[in-house]
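Moderator note: this is an archived Q&A kept for reference. The question asked for a predicted structure of one protein chain; the sequence and the answer are reproduced below.
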Amino acid sequence: MRRVLLVDDDDSMGQMLVAVLKRHQFEAVYVSSPDDALDKLDHGDFDVVVTDLKMRGMDGIALCERIVASRPELPVILLTAFGTFDAAVGAIRAGAYDFVTKPVENEVLLLAVERAWRHRNLHDEVKRLRLAVEQGRSLDDIVGGSAVMKKVFDLVDRVAQSDASVLITGESGTGKEMVARAIHRRSARSQAPFVAINCAAVPENLLESELFGHVKGAFTDARSARRGLFAQAQGGTLFLDEVGEMPIALQPKLLRAIQDRTVRPVGADTETPVDVRIVAATNRDLETAIDERRFREDLYYRLNVIHIPLPPLRARGNDTLLLAQQFLTRFAAQSQKSVAGLSTEAAERLLSYVWPGNVRELQNAMERAVALTRFDTISVDDLPDKIRSYRRSHVLIAAEDPSELVPLEEVERRYILRVMEAVAGNKTLAAQVLGLDRKTLYRKLERYAGGPPGT
């Protein structure tokens, strides 16, 4: 229950505010003096304190100072009929979280209390982070307590002992290779090699040789025979990163190698048996690539025996703070700095940011913050500017001015494009979110490419 302590020497005002808060699911306790408030705080737990400024005896400023000194995590909101600059400065200097001017508007008070309650909750969450990093569920170096990551951990544990091919999908920076390595370490092949290749990083004319090897004299620079990555991974795991970038001409050869468990080095006349487990990863929408004839359907189904989708960081809730604590602990140790954690304000910014670069971007942000901070807590000023200044965008679907209202088709267009932005252009995932079949979504996107309706 969300508990609020109300302090006001005007009984009618206090009782009225109690009623307002109770109607909005707050448990409100009213006292008529600062001394009674301090006694209540000594014997009970509250999430927010709301106090009048002008009271008999101790005023609200003095009460706020007493509370902040003994309970810095407890947000205090001051009510004042003196809506002047001096009153605001005094409240902030006393450590108040916020102030509300009289006559009190119910909506303004409720918004302030809601924000203060969330601030208190987030403060408690930040305090729990260090323990959560040590005790929370993890997958080797991947930590996470969110429901979506627990599903990933469970799926990895279940498939590790299988030899079936695995396809890991997710946006860039979500940790696909780390998951692939975790699968290998948990498998019966863990003592054999884990060999990785980024299919997008090797020139097309060299990729076949990298994968399958070549014999001496197979091409101009082939001065000696070379074992390919399939052979190097014998008995272990071959990780094909960015498999969606593999040239279409090479895909049938990869399919044959996986199906027949044999490889033919470039320039060789015979095939060589291989025993490897294939784990592939991509940030591409392979089903769309199939429709566009950039990826073979038969290869897709051969790779996608077991599918592990990795969620973007923005879909992992408080995992953002868990990971941030893990990174700052690591970088503080490396730089020999005594940085203990995040300020509540910095944590709020991390949670509100959309993280287009996912976990990799968060890691970079924490490394920068640890390097720049002069204190034992990461503050907002230590974060990159784009995180400090980020504001979420919203889709406009209505307005007070009738001239700003738009047709339903335009609302649909804006929403579909917003969903496409949120899923980083993944049409298959967007279609699932929107409840459309992919062909219908394609038709709408093709129509939108020409501009808004009526243009």
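Archived answer notes: Residues 402-448 form a domain with the Arc Repressor Mutant, subunit A fold (CATH 1.10.10.60).
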